[in-house]
User: What shape does this take?
Amino acid sequence: MEKDYTGKLISFEGPEGSGKSTQAEIIYKWLLKKGYDAVLTWEPGGTELGRMVRDILLNRGLAIGPKAEMLLYGADRAQHVEEVIHPALRKGKIVICDRYIDSSFAYQGCARGLGADFVEQVNALASGGLFPDLTLLFDLPAEEGFKRKKQCDFDRIEREGLEFHEAVRKGYLMAAEKNPHRVKIIDASRPLEIVSEDAISIVYRFLKGWEHNAKRD
Ligand code: TYD
Assistant: This one.
């Protein structure tokens, strides 16, 4: 897709308990402090429709087949891109998105076994070809992620077994291998402050490159 915007989309990805949402918030605040115009948003549930879809996906105890699950995440994404992400990018903002297309690749494509083709088609349609400029992947073994979570309020996806969540991790690592320029892997098993130092330095270098190129244009 020919880009009709000047902003940048940075997605935050990782398995359950990887701390990506905390890191997304830290980076968002850091960007604001540095004077950047930034937006923090998330999937599923970054719009009013998305919050309803999220509830259907995670909290209603419904039996949802893998294809329907993918299409529901796709519906959430299509609305999110149209209502939130694309307009912000057109205003030149930096959009920090907590989960995006690689979540579908890892969870539905790999762990649910739908395969790359199906998921990539839905991702392309739902996002309108609007792919992240940079993705931070907070990587850690599924078992460690689960040790960090409270079991009592697990949702439909979190209740899946360790094997499922190990497949999610593998899916993410595969996405990183497929897109080495876009996806940067961060070892999330380390203490929070060390992890955020890494995340900040990756985003800092990325933005410096962007500003450098913008000045040359
Ligand atoms: P999230 O709210 O980020 O959960 P958490 O804060 O526990 O990481 O995401 C909700 C769940 O949705 C999470 O288990 C991952 C799943 N998910 C998919 O399976 N596919 C997708 O495309 C997205 C965006 C999320």
Summary: The longest strand covers residues 8-13. The domain at 8-216 is CATH 3.40.50.300 (Rossmann fold). The two ends are 20 Å apart (CA to CA). The first helix runs from residue 20 to 33.
